[in-house]
Predict the 3D structure of the following.
Amino acid sequence: MNRRDLIACFQSTGFTPAHRLGQNFLVDRNLAVKLVEMAGVVAGDTVVEVGPGFGMLSRVLVERGAMVHAIEKDERLRPHLDELSRELGKGFQWMQGDAVEHPYADLDPGEDCLIVANLPYAITGPWLFKVMSVGFPRVIGLMLQREAAERLMAPVGDKRYGPLSIQLQAAYTLSGMHRVPSSCFHPPPDIESVLFVVNRKEHPRRFGKICYAGMQEVFTQRRKQLLGLLTRKGLDVSGWIGLLERYGLDSRVRPEEVPIAAWMEADAQYLFGRD
């Protein structure tokens, strides 16, 4: 389905893209193929797709031999997706729902899968957090806002470095990023986009709930000294002092200056408390 086909479909059905749902439909098949190739999808893979829309990416995934489990929030697309399901057969299943509430569609989070999606940009943070809070897909391949992709891979010391980037980088390594022109979507977004693919590490790390919540709290004041923030939380900072010293950090260090390995050690030692 190219841009002309999509617009014709809109006109015939009276469909209008909803800004509140972040609907920018992919109209470049070559880009869908590129994302599927970057994600390393092969025949027999189980793939979760978020927001299948009018099925551009879904078709490429099924043609590759993947079993697609899709989730779509916009109920107006039900007739089209039911038709798409009949067209693609058993390789495509979909459910109505909110991807933040059901990040793996109808799959068990423990099932071996990949996630490949043209993700509604507004849900990137909460959706990705939910994905990693219950499972670790083998590969996550997304069409993503460039700014969000750079924030997710921000290094220690960068102003964009924070709890979500720490969690992602503790579990995944970046395998590819590719610029996407706005002309590949309809309507074209006003922001820059990229294809963004990460691969699960051999031993992915998930932070405990109390540790992650503590990280979120101290990063709201990222420019203040970490030990001062922890003291005001009523925590015993003696363990933190020893931890920071092992990483060559002094008592004046700020949250954004603490490397991922140190946060992982703080979690392992329950320095924020036990879950």
